[in-house]
Amino acid sequence: MDNDVTLTRGEMEELCRLFMEGELSVGEERDLAKVLSLSAERGGIIDETVFLLGIQRTAASCAGTDVYRDSAEEVPSVEGSRQWRKIFSRIITASVCASSLIAVVSLGWETAMVGSDDVNENVYTVYIDGKMVSDPDVARMIALESYQENMAMLRQMKEMERQERMEVESQLEIYDRITDEINTYKNI
What we know:
By secondary structure, the chain is an all-alpha fold. It has five helices and two strands; from the N terminus they run H-H-H-H-E-E-H. It has helices at 9-20, 26-38, 45-62, 78-112, 136-187, and strands at 127-128, 131-132. The protein has a two-stranded antiparallel ribbon with strand order 1-2. The radius of gyration is 26 Å and the shape is elongated.
């Protein structure tokens, strides 16, 4: 792409949309990265594209490869680029779902545990295959086992959420570093 090409904001947004959909070739992605790094336009899909291009470049450099190769044999497919974006999207979706589920389960346990702190004073009602367990000791034992299993699952989900949060924070740090590099490149 020539250095003297000037694009309008609408044209840049359209190129960004095509990038997000995986419709650009590797060469076009390289040109888009150059245009966006030199442009003062920011906001919306342009920022999202700059972020994804930066993460893509950082991931490739960590893997010891170059995102924008020149030889046709080494050019990654458009499908591979789409796959990467789908994985990133799934990570964010999983984080949001896990956080929501943890909040709902926590709220449910808090409201359900209003009774006495002494487990022997509480009344436990347990159903197995639609039939109520009549022995109160057996019902208490089943309810407490179920409670312990659920609490273990909740701890596991909180750990998964913590790990996902750390991953997102790491990606944001990478984005900030890349943005700083782009701004430094613009000032040269």
